[in-house]
Amino acid sequence: MSPAPAAARTRAVALALALALALAAAAAAGCRGPQSAPPSDKLPSWERPDALFLAPEPCDALVIEVDSTVDAPPSDAALDALRSFFAAYCEKPAGISIVRDESIPAESVRGLTPERIALRHMSLAPDPRDRATAYVYVLYYRSDDGRNPHVNWHYPGAIFADITYFRRVASEIPGFAVEDVEAPLLVHEAGHVLGLTRDESHGDGSHCSNRRCVMYAVLEVSLEGLSRGERLPEAPCDRCRADIAAARSRRPDARLGFVGPVFVRREPRYTLLRLPGLLMVALGDEAAIPAEIRGRALAARAEIYPAEAQYLYLYWRPPEAAAESLAGPLGDALRDPDAAARHAAAILLRDLASAGPLGPRLDALRRLALDDVDPGVRSIAESIPESAAPPDTAGGATGRSP
Ligand SMILES: [Zn+2]
Ligand SMILES: [Zn+2]
Fold first, then answer.
1. What is the pLDDT of residues 139-164, one digit of tens each?
2. DSSP letter string over 107-146?
3. Confidence band (pLDDT; 50, 70, 90) for 389?
4. pTM for the predicted model, two decimal places
5. Mapping DSSP to helix (H, G, I), strand (E, B) and coil, where does residue 285 land?
6. In the chain, what are the domains?
7. 99 CA to centre of ligand 2 in angstroms
8. What is the 354 CA–ligand 1 centroid distance (Å)?
9. Taking ligand 1, which is a single-atom ion, which protein residues have CB atoms under 5 Å away?
């Protein structure tokens, strides 16, 4: 994506190109995951959690928790830029606050994915009964190889910032301090949290087409610009600002909300619960979901699964219900528009099958999953043996993908 200078004939231009490439390597892949998203011009309202951060209702306040490992402290300048960015665009009459947690001992999280560190340490979220406060989580950590800053696609409000990456990029730009790189990249990720550039009218659905916009895929500055004291772009362009204004005026989808740190979508017969690197489909009424998987307890639950698991697909079902009686809500979940939700539902179906032969209604769901457009869902369905036997009774109450 890095546009090269038209003629790289002089040393200065060649240097500028090298610089642009260095920055491109750093900033271009700052975001993972848009490949699983539907075309952005047709984004349904459930795909627009950004409205929870932007609009004054139902969340009239915003809490931004910033965690860092001892060896990856954020700069005050970058956090000020982050605070200013959210304050400029989020309409929160009850206030926007950045809360800093105690530094995380580096040794205690060595070898963990940033998502797993988040699950362990996102501790300053609002009380689960407080449905009026939106929550954003920022984690600063230090890797050996320097990973691109990124947002978590399935969980709308988590930003991951690797200090190794910021330091490396800053060291490659003459006269740049770490915060000169850190602040614009942090603001860029915050722009994703606010849903920017998912409109393809001036971008590719994940980044803006304006090279001087903070939401451009590759933040860059030429040598010539550097000599004039230019910095990386830190502000959204006019069109991105207009997108934010339009998003803020939309009423958020009433099914979406936060329960503590957990991002929730409530459907009539099932509920989707999300955290960084984790999705749970819970069958039945939300009120029936037990305390041990509510709010922060759901994050703690991840500890029972291997730390190297990239993504946890979990489910919860009413434990006393007979398997065949779950066919209604499970069928709804297997028709969810989000492939990750269907993936978790298919795992539940597979586990029901492993506990005993599927009854006719559940077997119909197996055939439904066999026709899923998502290859991951199909492959789970293919591992379930065909069955026309009578329904069994309850098996295990919760489970996860292998
Ligand atoms: Zn990005
Ligand atoms: Zn823009």
1. 999 999 999 899 987 899 999 999 99
2. GGGTT--HHHHHHHH---PPPTT-TTEEEEEEEEE--SS-
3. low
4. 0.85
5. coil
6. 30-249 (3.40.390.10), 267-400 (no CATH)
7. 28
8. 42
9. 30-31
